[in-house]
Amino acid sequence: DAMVIQNPRYQVTQFGKPVTLSCSQTLNHNVMYWYQQKSSQAPKLLFHYYDKDFNNEADTPDNFQSRRPNTSFCFLDIRSPGLGDAAMYLCATSRVGVGETQYFGPGTRLLVL
Amino acid sequence: SQQGEEDPQALSIQEGENATMNCSYKTSINNLQWYRQNSGRGLVHLILIRSNEREKHSGRLRVTLDTSKKSSSLLITASRAADTASYFCATDEDDYKLSFGAGTTVTVRA
What we know:
The complex is a heterodimer of chains A (113) and B (110).
Chain A: E1 4-7, E2 10-13, E3 19-25, E4 31-37, E5 44-50, E6 53-56, E7 64-67, E8 73-78, E9 87-94, E10 103-104, E11 108-112
Parallel strand pairs in A: 2-11
Antiparallel strand pairs in A: 1-3, 3-8, 4-5, 4-9, 5-6, 7-8, 9-10, 9-11
Chain B: E1 5-7, E2 10-14, E3 19-24, E4 31-37, E5 43-50, E6 55-58, E7 61-66, E8 71-76, E9 85-92, E10 99-100, E11 104-109
Parallel strand pairs in B: 2-11
Antiparallel strand pairs in B: 1-3, 3-8, 4-5, 4-9, 6-7, 7-8, 9-10, 9-11
């Protein structure tokens, strides 16, 4: 049973054309995360939500924004995708607390033409 | 920010052999976790070791932690083709966020 679902699995967009990636969870976890992962690199945290509180990482470009309308759903908006934004985008969830496991979705592969 | 550094970057072994990979980190931690990522997929949690633990086992996995050297190792015994994946260590510092290492790509040859 899928616990963290990401749609779409593959997304092709044009340079500068806004795109939205979605994530949903059935775990009822407080925390939802968005990571960017480029080929052969570590996942890089972009931001996370603790309930409705949005927490941006200091080096996340303004081009990336997020919305969490309810506990189950979280969206990643890329306002003006550049070629450098082509990557795998991973959504994860966890309970709040040190030492909690993060549960990842399968990821959305973004291609920018 | 990325705290973990993993070694080696890539590892190729024969089925049935053991695979060992290492992770070093920079600052004090509460816990260290290992995750696996199959090609083109999300990460899957494998095992967590707390800062006051030195060794932990889970099935064919053995993890060690040396906080004095700020390093951890993951051993996969009797490897199988299905173990082909990238393995990431992840540390938490003072909250629930994780910092991932660059990963070790393991290829198990049949």
